[in-house]
Amino acid sequence: MAVTSDPFTATDLAGMIPDLWVPYVLEEKFAKYVLGNFVRDYTIYAQDGGNTFEIPDVFTNSFTPQTQSTQGAEVTTESVAQAKVQLAINTHKYIALLIGDKDQAQLWKSYDFNGVYGRKCGSALHIVLEDALTALWSGLSTNLIGDTATQLVDAEIRQGINKLATGKFDLRECAFFIHTYVFWVQLASIAKYYDASQSGLLGKAQSFVIDGNFGPMDASRGLTGALYGISMFTTPEIVSGLQTYRNLLLHKDALGFGTQTPGGNIVRIQAENAIRNLGLLTVLDIVYGVKVVREPAAVLLNASSAFIGS
Prior knowledge:
The chain is an alpha+beta fold. The chain has one domain (about 35-50, about 90-305). The protein has seven helices and 14 strands. It has helices spanning about 100-105, 115-135, 155-165, 180-185, 190-195, 195-200, 210, and strands at about 40, 50-55, 85-90, 90-100, 145, 175-180, 225, 230-235, 240, 245-250, 255-260, 270-275, 280-290, 300-305. Strands 5, 6, 7, 8, 9, 10 and 14 form a seven-stranded mixed beta sheet that branches. Strands 1, 4, 11, 12 and 13 form a five-stranded mixed beta sheet that branches. It is flat, with a radius of gyration of 27 Å.
């Protein structure tokens, strides 16, 4: 029996084969809001106006204990100079969207256009503030560890801790902020951290290789456990420049920020039907400022952005 050699193809049937639109939208993924949830937030003091926080600093200069060698002698008084730190609310960022009335009416109602793009733009503005905080690494000069040529190693982690401990900072109020590359490619290669016979976890259920974290963690805020009892957060927003990741070990008072976005939230969203454009205008914005408030309370942990641990 003869067999036909000219069946219909998908190209022939293109006019009748429909495209299928799934209800799932590929939304952009953003980093966690990490540093902003840890360092000192002065926002509450900015709600009644003003553009600069004046933060008194009595940390810089110290008193000198005197010896009362002769009982009843007149005491020696002293005064130490006070200092202040100024945190300026000086940055206003926004994202604006405009969609015409015709296009808005024709959008398929199965998709939450405003919700999807509201989340996308809101997250982008949150990360603007997060990036401003991580960029403060360039204002650190007291405690500098590591370099551009080598990986971050355990000895440097301990040196960083010692810097803050020597400065009498409460280590319970400190935390590491490590780039995800440094965490997974460098720190995770240190046998002391994953070898149960060296880490003290032999015979215990907890294991870095099994769990992927150093003890109790909270992925929703980037917490990956603790090193030497100090919380460790990982984030891809740690600054990368000159072949170096600028990881941080911070006391919570080291950096500060404040937001003054109208309405009281970190990010504001406004929308209006703009007659002049025959469309819906949506604007999201944030008003903020950041500052290195207590510089000795921070440690910069430099690590190569190319070095791969074995």
